Known about the structure:
Blueprint: E1 13-18, H1 22-32, E2 38-44, H2 47-57, E3 61-64, H3 75-86, E4 91-96, H4 101-109, E5 114-117, H5 122-133, E6 138-139, H6 141-152, H7 162-172, H8 177-184, H9 188-201, H10 207-216
Keywords: DNA-binding, Phosphoprotein
Domain Response regulatory: 14-133
Pfam family, one: GerE
Amino acid sequence: MRLPDQRTGDPSVRIVLVDDHAIVRHGLRSVLEREDDLQVVGEAATAAEALTVVADAAPHIVLLDLKLSTGDNTEGLQLCGQLTERHPDLGVLVLTTFLDGGLVVDAIHRGARGYVVKDVDTTELVRSIRAVARRESSFDSRSAAAMVESMNAPTTEPRLTERELNVLRQLAHGLSNRDIGAKLFISETTVKFHVRNIMRKLTATSRAEAVYEASKLHLI
């Protein structure tokens, strides 16, 4: 996969957008194609679509959301690994609503070159895309801070955020995702995201096991 090169007469950075919301993809396309050196060459809403589109369109960059319509809230992590394994020269830039140091580190381990949150301004997003196209790494300030905090955290005990601890306490009372969302005034999708993070950090395979492991660590 050839990187953009002014000397070859092909200065455009070729981009594929992977997000399960069409309106988000359309908005990103509109913003990015205002830049003379950026070209959106494909879109995908699912992991399967993304694998096909990337193989056909041969982009330089994939702008990847972590939550896709056909799977869980971190399906994008698995897709990131697949894309970078199949296309070693591909630059994957995660663009997501989820800010968690563990996710940032996981994305890097799966080959991502950058991680930015969706409320980043257009200038910062474009700068990140260009940096990744140059084979550099790029993280917005909050993602970088979350990554550093996660990497510096003691490995002997999982570090749960205050929100995750709140969700965990509700899990201990046997509440469903919907009930937890209503109690904490967050969406059911966000609850699912936090539950998966809790289970990952506690190396638990079920909600009950997560509560049990948390009780042993005196987290609840």
